[in-house]
Amino acid sequence: MEEYSGVWVFIEVDEEKNIEGVSLELLGAGRALADKLNVPLAGVLLGDNIRGLANQVIYSGADTVYVVDHPVLNLYRTEAFMKAVILLAEKYKPEIFLYGATPNGKDLASAIATDLSTGLTADTTMLDIDLEKRLLEASRPAFGGNIMATILCKKHRPQMATVRPKVMKALQPDDSRLGKIIEEELELREEDMRTKVLEIVKDVTKKANLADAHVIVAGGKGLGDQQGFQLIHELAETIGASVGGTRDVIEAGWLPHELQIGQTGETVTPKIYFAIGISGAIQHVVGMKNSEIIIAINKNPEAAIFDVATYGIVGDAHEIVPKLIQQFKGISKGDLSYV
Amino acid sequence: MHIVVCVKQVPDTKIIKINPKTNTLDRRSAPAILNPFDAHAVQEAVKIKKRIGGTVSVLSMGPPQAVAIIKNSIEIGADRGYLISDRAFAGADTLATSYALSKALEKIQEEMPIDMVICGKHAIDGDTGQVGPGIARRLDIPPVTNVIEVTEVNHKEKKVLIKRKQINGYEVIEAQLPCLLTVEKEVNEIEYAPMPNMIKAARYEPTVWSVNDLNDVDKAQLGLKGSPTVVGKMFTPPKPEGGKRLEGTSDEQVRELVTLLAEKKNLFNFDVNNS
Ligand SMILES: Cc1cc2nc3c(=O)[nH]c(=O)nc-3n(C[C@H](O)[C@H](O)[C@H](O)COP(=O)(O)OP(=O)(O)OC[C@H]3O[C@@H](n4cnc5c(N)ncnc54)[C@H](O)[C@@H]3O)c2cc1C
Ligand SMILES: Nc1ncnc2c1ncn2[C@@H]1O[C@H](COP(=O)(O)O)[C@@H](O)[C@H]1O
Questions:
Q1: pLDDT tens across B168-185, in order?
Q2: B198-236 pLDDT per residue, tens
Q3: Mean pLDDT for chain B?
Q4: Predicted local confidence at residue A330, as pLDDT
Q5: Given pLDDT bands bounded at 50, 70 and 90, which one contains residue A133?
Q6: Alpha-carbon distance B165 to A259, whole Å?
Q7: pLDDT at position B163, please?
Q8: Are A288 and A314 in contact, with CB atoms under 8 Å apart?
Q9: Contact by Cβ (8 Å): A65, B129
Q10: What ipTM describes this predicted complex?
């Protein structure tokens, strides 16, 4: 076990050869873990013609970038990516290996963990180190999110975890940072691949909008019924925001399921998040608590949403929201240029 | 076409309660159900069978009570059920689970070659989604995770056409058979079980195997012993403080809020109407 050293991050690249946000966030989180352990941080960069991205990985926190550049690695496929990662992991033996909890990251990490016979913690939201034992403490919501569980992998290396997007913080890129780029050769043949990606269809509908939205107006069951929920749409319209909702709202059929925010829906980090008639259940809060400003409107002063709110208004949504709409409409653009 | 669906019995986490003193799960508070994603997995296998013919088997690892979810699967339209049940499997994490299930799949394979394995995207109790890809590795078949549509199955040419959900949209994938899919809920709608299935399910008794019924099993890779991960501590997330409560009449509160947001406008120099 002692021969394993260093923290690694799998760098996910999309088909337009942009590094996914979650990988940059993991470089930020990985940097903190590596500093605590006093070991280097490395990124693992795979793809076709992606060498050029290695510097960006270093600017975002890595000391080393391992690169495998090969035409067969053009789009993500488990069998091809797995071969490359296993080659690297067996040769350089990292003690910790992190992946984004994205479709590809989860798929890849599960395959690697099986081949390396090691432990993998899914959907982590907190990472820390037990320095005395040099153990990764990967914590995640358990049992529907009411409680956190810390998962340890004591006797196997690398210790692996997938980490949810938007919970860790990326570092400010620093182009004066220096690092090592190590490129490995790997023999891969297209004929050996048993899967082919025939087409990629981008869905730029509401869902993507929600994840990128600067301002979100989210409503809960407290709006009463579908009719009452119209207030949410009206406020959103007035200030040019996107609309979201709680699971209960989606289950009631007031909104389509892709607009659900929370543990089993989208994770969002807008500048402003209005939570209206939302109780603030932990499963909802994990999906929005990293918003910059949270405004809660709820008639129950004890509602848990007030614990995470920047500004709280105790009152009836049916009374408050129309007044808000009126105020916003009355404001000149100059006074409030962002709404 | 022989499709095997892996199904898990889980506590219904919608209603499960946590004992706040001990931080443990009060299992009695929640009924055990067929993992919702696995119900969609069975439904998809049955849909494929209806289109091109074949056999649908379901496989579960769990305590003897897990027979109940095998019966649920027969109601949806599965033909056969297998349960592996043994103390040796208890306490398994995803690595040990995929090992045990792959050993059972090898045994089923002896009875009838397998063309496709379908799992749920994840189990709602563990929430990991790691068992499916793990099984695929152990059987050395390609995995396709997060499937939202099985567009075409060509048994003769041993090919399937699949839509796989991605971060922003989906991919169209062609995979060779045999392969393993994990399915999202969008993949289909659960249909009402027809009466004959209900009658069959009520009488159905699955094949039950203990660890000694499986071939070449390395017991060190099973159950708690074979699980590299352990649960350290459980804790409730620290409660945040909360921010400023606005005061006064509703008109005053609304005005104050809008003023506060206006003051912060320098924080964000963008125009929402154009974003
Ligand atoms: C495994 C699991 C996963 C889950 N995933 C998610 C998820 O991803 N996202 C999610 O949102 N939930 C999720 N949930 C559900 C979550 O636990 C809550 O049930 C849900 O968030 C509650 O929705 P709500 O706040 O709209 O409704 P409620 O809890 O019913 O709250 C309504 C609130 O509105 C207030 N109110 C009522 N009338 C008014 C009024 N006139 N004006 C102002 N306020 C009013 C009430 O005081 C109350 O606080 C999940 C649950 C589980 C078990
Ligand atoms: N004990 C089990 N028995 C049968 N199938 C299982 C079991 N555990 C997991 N699976 C399958 O693997 C999928 C993912 O489970 P998980 O990785 O635990 O989230 C489930 O949807 C099932 O299809």
A1: 889 999 999 999 999 999
A2: 999 999 999 999 999 999 999 999 999 999 999 999 888
A3: 91
A4: 76
A5: very high
A6: 16
A7: 97
A8: no
A9: no
A10: 0.85
Residue-wise pLDDT tens digits, B127-159: 899 999 999 999 999 999 999 999 999 999 999
One-character DSSP codes across chain B: -EEEEE--EEE-TTT-EEETTTTEEEGGGS-EEE-HHHHHHHHHHHHHHHHH--EEEEEEES-GGGHHHHHHHHHHT-SEEEEE--GGGTT--HHHHHHHHHHHHHHHHHHS--SEEEEES--TTT----HHHHHHHHHT--EEEEEEEEEEEETTTTEEEEEEEETTEEEEEEEESSEEEEE-GGG--PPPPPHHHHHHHHH---EEE-GGGSSS--GGGSTTTT--EEEEEEEPPPPP---EEP-SSHHHHHHHHHHHHHHGGGG----GGG-
CB contact under 8 A, A107 and B145: yes
User: Which residue type occupies A13?
Assistant: V
Burial class (CB in 10 A: 0-12, 13-18, 19+), B148: middle
Report, as an integer, the average pLDDT of B21-36: 76
Q: Is 60 exceeded by the pLDDT of residue B269?
A: no
A216 is in an annotated binding site: no
Burial A270-291 (b: 16+ CB within 10 A, else e): bbbbbbbbbbbbbbbbbbbbbb
> Cα distance from B134 to chain A (closest Cα, Å)?
6
Out of B13, B130, B240, closest to residue A143 by CB: B13
Per CB-CB distance under 8 Å, the chain A contacts of B227 are 119
Q: What percent of chain A has pLDDT over 70?
A: 95
- Omega of the bond leading into B178 within 30 degrees of 0 (cis): yes
Q: Where in chain B is the domain with CATH 3.40.50.620?
A: 2-221
Which domains can be identified in chain A, with CATH numbers? 7-192 (3.40.50.620), 210-337 (3.40.50.1220)
Tokens encoding B150: 């099985």
CA A264 to chain centre: 13
Q: Which one-letter amino acid corresponds to residue B95?
A: L
Record the tokens describing residue A310, joined without a space. 């920047």
pLDDT value at position A282? Answer: 87
- As to burial, measured by CB atoms within 10 angstroms (0-12 exposed, 13-18 middle, 19+ buried), residue B155 is middle
Q: Which CATH superfamily is domain B2-221 in?
A: HUPs (3.40.50.620)
Q: Do B25 and A324 touch (CB under 8 A)?
A: no
Longest dimension (CA), chain B: 75
Closest Cα in chain A, distance from residue B71 (Å): 25
pLDDT of residue B18: 66
pLDDT in tens, B30-66: 789 999 999 999 999 999 999 999 999 999 999 999 9
Buried b (16+ CB within 10 A) or exposed e, B41-79: bbbbbbbbbeeeebbbbbbbbbeeebbbbbbbbbbbbbb
